[in-house]
């Protein structure tokens, strides 16, 4: 059975969807721990409520990037993590971690990548940009993580219409509902071997 680590920064609603799908047996995996760079993240509360180890892990506790990176690798190895799921994680995952877990790190993004991805495109900023561009549709994407922001191969994508008069908040709410549906599906595909990362040149 695969062991997941879920990295979060905020409220953890996608984490809750993952927990629910693991608990129901839909995803044949266990969650080894939940990690957040934010000590007051609600995601950590959600983890504790379900008796999942909740870890506050921040670069401020380490003397430099190399020590931070090594500590993260050690943590992942100690918990025998197979797959890392980024669920609203606002920090860049260290390069050595991405290389060690290539094809085993997933991220969810609130837009139809490659549109509206990259640095600065997160949270409400994405939805505001979609509306400003007068797009007719948006959506959510689960993709494999590479060393570039939002640049990895897509695993699952689902569209959401942009309705006349939509605010960024209204669009965000509809996209989030889709995120909760497609992230467990993407994890299931990877865990079951139905999706794997293509070799990158």
TrEMBL record:
Which residues does the annotation say bind N(1)-(5-phospho-beta-D-ribosyl)glycinamide? 12-14
Report the GO molecular function annotations: phosphoribosylglycinamide formyltransferase activity
**Known InterPro entries for this protein?**
Formyl_transf_N (IPR002376), Formyl_transf_N_sf (IPR036477), GART (IPR004607), GART_AS (IPR001555)
List, alphabetically, the SUPFAM superfamilies matched.
Formyltransferase
Sites binding (6R)-10-formyltetrahydrofolate sit at 90-93, 107
Q: Which residues form the Formyl transferase N-terminal domain?
A: 4-187
Which Gene Ontology terms describe the biological processes this protein takes part in?
'de novo' IMP biosynthetic process
Reactions the enzyme catalyzes: N(1)-(5-phospho-beta-D-ribosyl)glycinamide + (6R)-10-formyltetrahydrofolate = N(2)-formyl-N(1)-(5-phospho-beta-D-ribosyl)glycinamide + (6S)-5,6,7,8-tetrahydrofolate + H(+)
- As recorded in UniProt, its EC number(s) are 2.1.2.2
Q: Where is this site: Raises pKa of active site His?
A: 150
Cellular compartments per GO CC: cytoplasm
The catalytic residues are 109 (proton donor)
Q: Which keywords belong to this entry?
A: Purine biosynthesis, Transferase
Q: In which pathway does it act?
A: Purine metabolism; IMP biosynthesis via de novo pathway; N(2)-formyl-N(1)-(5-phospho-D-ribosyl)glycinamide from N(1)-(5-phospho-D-ribosyl)glycinamide (10-formyl THF route): step 1/1
Q: Which HAMAP family match?
A: PurN
The UniProt function text for this chain reads: Catalyzes the transfer of a formyl group from 10-formyltetrahydrofolate to 5-phospho-ribosyl-glycinamide (GAR), producing 5-phospho-ribosyl-N-formylglycinamide (FGAR) and tetrahydrofolate.
Family label: Belongs to the GART family.
Descriptive protein name: Phosphoribosylglycinamide formyltransferase
Organism expressing this protein natively: Candidatus Raymondbacteria bacterium RIFOXYD12_FULL_49_13
List the lineage, top down: Bacteria, Raymondiibacteriota
Q: Gene encoding it?
A: purN
């Amino acid at each position: 059975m695969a062991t997941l680590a879920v990295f979060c920064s905020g409220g953890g609603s996608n984490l809750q969807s993952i927990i629910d799908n693991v608990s129901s047996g839909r995803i044949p995996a266990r969650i080894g721990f939940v990690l957040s760079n934010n000590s007051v993240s609600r995601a950590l509360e959600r983890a504790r409520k379900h008796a999942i180890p909740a870890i506050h892990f921040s670069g401020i506790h380490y003397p430099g990037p190399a020590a931070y990176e090594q500590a993260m690798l050690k943590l992942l190895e100690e918990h025998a993590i197979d797959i890392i799921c980024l669920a609203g994680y606002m920090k860049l995952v260290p390069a050595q971690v991405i290389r060690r877990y290539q094809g085993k790190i997933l991220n969810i993004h609130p837009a139809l990548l490659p549109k509206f991805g990259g640095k600065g495109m997160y949270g409400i900023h994405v939805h505001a940009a979609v509306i400003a561009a007068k797009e007719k549709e948006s959506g959510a994407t689960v993709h494999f993580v590479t060393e570039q922001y939002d640049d990895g191969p897509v695993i699952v994508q689902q569209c959401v219409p942009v309705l006349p008069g939509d605010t960024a908040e209204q669009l965000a709410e509809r996209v989030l509902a889709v995120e909760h549906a497609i992230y467990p599906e993407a994890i299931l595909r990877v865990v079951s071997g139905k999706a794997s990362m293509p070799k990158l040149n």
